[in-house]
Design a protein that fits this description.
It is a single chain. With 337 residues, this protein is an alpha/beta fold. It folds into two domains: 2-180 and 232-260, Rossmann fold (3-Layer(aba) Sandwich), CATH 3.40.50.720; 199-231 and 263-336, Alpha-Beta Complex (UDP-galactose 4-epimerase, domain 1). It contains eleven helices and 13 strands. The chain has helices at 11-22, 38-47, 62-71, 86-91, 93-114, 147-165, 199-207, 235-249, 268-279, 303-309, 317-330, and strands at 2-6, 26-31, 53-56, 76-79, 118-124, 170-176, 178-180, 214-217, 229-234, 254-260, 265-267, 285-288, 297-298. The protein has a seven-stranded parallel beta sheet with strand order 3-2-1-4-5-6-10, with helices on both faces. Strands 7, 9, 11 and 13 form a four-stranded mixed beta sheet that branches. Strands 8-12 form a two-stranded parallel sheet. Helix 6 links the parallel strand 5 and strand 6 (170-176). The chain starts with a strand and ends in a 7-residue tail after the last helix.
Length: 337
């Protein structure tokens, strides 16, 4: 079975490609390196259990997207590609809508044209907005508080509509919580452009000396230590969830929706102190004002994925931090060395 993996050179995509290859799938990666580096593909080649194909393509180009389906007999698709920074999306809403929606639209048109019926979508816990309670179940009300989150929710709506119009479609919506960590080899990991938006790579860059101190946004939330609580999931566990989702699509048509998280919430300071243990040093931090739009706590109820996919996250906070530190310490400048 040949899987088209859009955004397959990126952080989550690259780890998923390795798991797909290990599971025996053939893989075609489509990426334009907006959120990834060509060097990631070189590293993937050294880690992969078998060869894969790669095409550099901008999925907002309908003709270029369709050419992928003309060149390769695609059996299923995992769609990671997209712009992904919450803060940037507030500054550049039209670019987020143009890129994330147009690329998905083009892929769905080509899938319909070429008879491809299996689609796994990289969604996000942002579609829950500010949840009324935790842990968060898949049947909670959906909303979004920023353009990035709205693109995820709009694409989910698009896919639900397509499923009604094309009842043979098999769609899986995977709502991630907070992916962290890296491959155990230390050869691939998260390499953000500029100053990291996410907590773990920010802490890692403080630990390696690239950034002076962690800025903790607020310590007056109604949480055990006053800092925000999130569900962090090891990227390898997340990647394995995509393999489980593909297998689920073999069971029949419809739209399947799953949270991919651990079900355990850790605060900002919990993560900082766990990383200190991994890297063996005390890391400086400063408390600053809350960020607008941040919520106090967000973590998953992962039981639906466990019961229907047979998937459950295996790695805890210690392994997440150890693997992230190995990647960052061996690659202080990311894929550039």
């Amino acid at each position: 079975m040949r899987i088209l993996v859009t955004g397959g050179a990126g952080y989550i995509g690259s780890h998923t490609v390795l798991e797909l290859l290990d599971a025996g799938y053939d893989v075609v990666i489509a990426d334009n390196f907006v959120n990834s580096k060509p060097a990631a593909l070189d590293r993937l080649c050294t880690l992969a259990s078998k060869p894969f194909q790669f095409e550099e393509v901008d999925l907002t180009d309908a003709a270029a997207t369709d050419a992928l389906f003309q060149k390769y007999p695609i059996d299923a698709m995992i769609h990671f590609a997209g712009l992904k920074a919450v803060g940037e999306s507030v500054q550049l809403p039209l670019e987020y809508y143009r890129n994330n929606l147009t690329s998905t639209f083009n892929l769905l048109i080509s899938m319909q044209k070429h008879g491809v019926e299996k689609f796994v979508f990289s969604s996000s816990a942002t579609v829950y907005g500010d949840p009324v309670s935790v842990p968060i179940r898949e049947d909670f009300a959906l909303s979004a508080t920023n353009p990035y989150g709205r693109t995820k929710l709009m694409i989910e709506d698009m896919l639900r509509d397509v499923s009604i119009a094309q009842p043979d479609m098999r769609i899986c919506l995977l709502r991630y919580f907070n992916p962290v960590g890296a491959h155990i080899s230390g050869k691939i990991g998260e390499d953000p452009n500029g100053i990291p938006n996410n907590l773990m790579p920010y802490i890692a860059q403080v630990a390696v000396g690239k950034l002076p101190a962690l800025r903790v946004f607020g310590n007056d939330y109604p949480t055990p230590d006053g800092t925000g609580v999130r569900d962090y999931i090891h990227v390898v566990d997340l990647a394995k969830g995509h393999v489980a989702a593909l297998k689920k699509l073999e069971s029949g048509a419809g739209v399947y929706t799953y949270n991919l998280g651990t079900g355990v919430g850790y605060s900002v300071l919990d993560m900082l102190h766990a990383f200190e243990k991994a890297c063996g040093k005390t890391l400086p931090y400063e408390i600053v004002a809350r960020r607008p739009g941040d919520i106090a706590a967000c973590y998953a109820d992962p039981e639906k994925a466990a019961s229907e996919l047979g998937w459950r996250a295996e790695f805890g906070i210690e392994r997440m931090c150890a693997d992230a530190w190995r990647w960052q310490s061996q690659n202080p400048n990311g894929f550039e060395g």
